Amino acid sequence: MYCDPRFSRVREVFERNFADGEELGAAFAVYQHGELVVDLWDGVADRHTGRRWERDTPVFAYSCTKAVTATVLHLLAERGLVDVQAPVAEVWPEFAARGKAAVTVEHLLTHQAGLPALEEPVPVEEFEDQPAIAARLAAQEPLWEPGSAHGYHALTYGFLVGEVVRRVTGKSVGELVAAEIAGPLGLEMWVGAPDDVIDRAARLTAGERARPMKVTEADADGGAPAGPAPADDAPAESAPAEAATAGGRPRDVLAEMARASLDPQSLMNRALGNPGIHLLKGGANNPVVLRAGWPAAGLVTTARGLAGFYRSLVAGDVLRPDTLQDAVRPRVDGPDRVLLLDTAFGLGYMRPSLTFLMPSRSAFGHSGAGGSIGLGDPEHGLGVAYVMNRMANAVSGNLRGIRLMEAVYQSL
């Protein structure tokens, strides 16, 4: 392990998370102006065997994938293969069905397409057939007028953006990540992991279910299913209990989230739970999920690999600086129809909000279920990532990573 003395506070927080019993296994990495200044890992990768977490232990990072997928799309846009402002149907004609002819690629990237949930359960046999799942979405009618509101497309984001990528290149997002980003830059990250990576990946494990508002995927070690996946970006403790409605009357957001989490038919649960990872033995540890490379939740990575991705983005080694500057510019900011809290997005990247509680307004990136976080910050020259395998409840899961991020900024 390595930690530059200037960032000793980060190491103290990392070690405290373990000492307080909040972690099973985890890793944290920081690049500043291209230099690796923090590279920490500790704990157990597999609680059943006692296998230790090593420097090169990868782990499934859920929705941290979305930023990587967005970057692939922007690479194609730079090459003139995709127009973000153009209708999706220009490259995917079947998508125009059921009133979607005017839906743009930007609507997909900003969660405004009105397709946050698949209407019919996706059979397990179809989990690795992304074009088939995309075809289901093409046949659906939007739940709201595209562009009029936004709601977190937890899983459908990837099938939608991924199909646009496939239509213009003939390749999957995972294939392009390997060929255009991870391979050339030497990054330990895969959207669709090969067998040797799956064999040494950390196993996710369920943590405490301390709050009634928690929505769980299932015991990640293979226990009985407990419902749909947790909200990737659920609120930290500082989230307010009340928020103003359009009419100025306060609403109890946490109570609304609690009710939604307990209702199998709520938009939150429908968006987070289909395709149902909990249908597979071992949940997200199942090789089917790790291999499938879902572009919304399919990233297997080390902390150093994910931090290196953001280091390279910030340095202009992946996208042109003007492309990145435009891509991270907030497009939507406010009440989220799926997560219910306020969310903020650029073109595929999260921006600071109640669901991405970062210490810097210039930060961008994406978080993932259980608390994993990838972050870039052009103003401070940062690429940062936190990954772990204990899927604690939404509050403590996020706070572990948030405390580490705060320590980074306090060290600058």
From TrEMBL:
Q: Where is this region: Disordered?
A: 209-249
Q: Compositional bias (Low complexity) spans? A: 229-248
Where does the Beta-lactamase-related domain lie? 14-404
Q: Which SUPFAM superfamilies does the entry mention?
A: beta-lactamase/transpeptidase-like
InterPro entries hit by this protein: Beta-lactam-related, Beta-lactam/transpept-like, Beta-lactamase/esterase
Q: Name one Pfam family in it.
A: Beta-lactamase
* Protein name (record): Beta-lactamase family protein
Native organism is: Actinomadura luzonensis
